[in-house]
């Protein structure tokens, strides 16, 4: 059995590399610090054996014709993108001030604004793709604060930094689980908007195709949209150029039908984004494990 002091010590050791990177570069510009962390994480993803094996396993299934060299390059670029994303979330208040970097479009934005004008809430669905916080930032700039659902981190240091960053992007923040679900329902019924990342494995979910492979997927977002007659809008913050600009695209709201069909429509939407920009999705989610 691992004792609590040993557990906390191990959590601290695992956090030290990230803490060091954030501390050493703290006096540099936002863009320089973000790029530096991206390069560091990209190097880890390129050479770290566990990450290499896990990502290669799924890449070979989704992109069977991709060469080893292409997988290596993609893995490194994904690491860079995820390093930048992590930095931006940790410094979310500052990230929200960079409004000139957000290029917003898509019919879903009008649907959200119309719902708000009518006193109704809305559900934004996205995934660990590009910079998902750019979606909430672009709406906050328009006077719409968007809450979020998040999964608690096992490492207390990451948990503290991550929660503070997400809270800076908009409230309320709801942890997955029974208590968080009650808060989420109250928020939606009061006319609030919430963003939910639907690409994580859900143990009690339904097996639905995702990138042409069955994956356990939560139906909760679609069920809530149907129950409270709310628009369910897929939205993505795709990195463009050197990675410091974002094309924030609000797709057409998913038509109301049944929870399975609506969730599958989202899976298909995110799958198309990933196939177009595979380096912008976080491939280490173990999305298909035990499915």
Topology at a glance:
Blueprint: H1 4-24, H2 30-47, H3 49-62, H4 68-90, H5 92-95, E1 102-105, H6 107-117, E2 122-126, H7 133-140, E3 146-150, H8 156-169, E4 173-175, H9 178-189, E5 193-197, E6 206-210, E7 213-217, H10 220-227, E8 232-240, E9 245-250, H11 259-276
Parallel strand pairs: 1-9, 2-5, 2-8, 3-4, 3-5
Antiparallel strand pairs: 6-7, 8-9
Pfam families: Lip_A_acyltrans
Keywords: Acyltransferase, Cell inner membrane, Cell membrane, Membrane, Transferase
Subcellular location: Cell inner membrane
- Beta-strand portion reads 15-25%
The biggest beta sheet is recorded as: 7 strands, mixed
Number of domains: 2
Q: SS-based structural class?
A: alpha/beta
Number of strand segments: 9
In whole angstroms, how far apart are the ends? 30 Å
Radius of gyration (CA) equals 19 Å
- Low-confidence stretches at least 5 residues in length (pLDDT < 50)? none
Envelope shape: globular
Number of helices: 11
Provide the succession of SSEs.
HHHHHEHEHEHEHEEEHEEH
| Neighbour order of strands in the largest sheet | 1-9-8-2-5-3-4
Average predicted confidence as pLDDT: 90
Q: State the helical fraction.
A: 40-55%
Keywords: Acyltransferase, Cell inner membrane, Cell membrane, Membrane, Transferase
Organism: Parasedimentitalea marina
Subcellular location: Cell inner membrane
Protein name: Acyltransferase
């Amino acid at each position: 059995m691992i004792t609590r002091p040993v557990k906390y010590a191990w959590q601290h050791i695992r956090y030290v590399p990230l803490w060091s990177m954030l501390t050493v570069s703290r006096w540099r510009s936002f863009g320089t610090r973000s790029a530096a962390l991206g390069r560091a994480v990209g190097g880890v993803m390129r050479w770290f054996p566990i990450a290499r094996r896990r990502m290669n396993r799924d890449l070979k299934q989704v992109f069977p014709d991709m060469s080893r060299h292409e997988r290596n390059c993609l893995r490194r670029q994904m690491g860079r993108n995820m390093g930048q994303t992590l930095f931006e979330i940790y410094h979310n208040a500052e990230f929200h001030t960079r409004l000139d970097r957000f290029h917003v479009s898509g019919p879903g934005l009008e649907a959200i604004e119309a719902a708000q004008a009518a006193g109704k809430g809305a559900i934004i669905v996205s995934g660990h793709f590009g910079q998902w916080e750019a979606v909430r930032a672009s709406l906050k700039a328009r006077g719409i604060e968007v809450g979020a659902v998040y999964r608690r981190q096992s490492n207390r240091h990451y948990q503290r930094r991550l929660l503070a960053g997400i809270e800076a992007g908009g409230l309320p923040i709801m942890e997955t689980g029974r208590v968080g679900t009650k808060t989420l329902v109250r928020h939606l019924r009061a006319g609030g908007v919430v963003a939910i990342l639907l690409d994580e494995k859900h143990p009690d979910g339904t097996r639905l195709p995702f990138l042409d492979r069955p994956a356990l997927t939560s139906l909760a977002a679609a069920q809530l949209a149907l129950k409270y007659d709310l628009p369910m809008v897929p939205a993505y913050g795709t990195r463009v150029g050197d990675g410091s600009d974002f094309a924030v695209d609000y797709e057409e709201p998913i038509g109301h039908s049944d929870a399975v069909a609506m969730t599958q429509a989202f899976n298909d939407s995110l799958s198309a984004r990933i196939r177009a920009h595979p380096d912008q999705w976080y491939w280490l989610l173990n999305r298909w494990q035990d499915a």
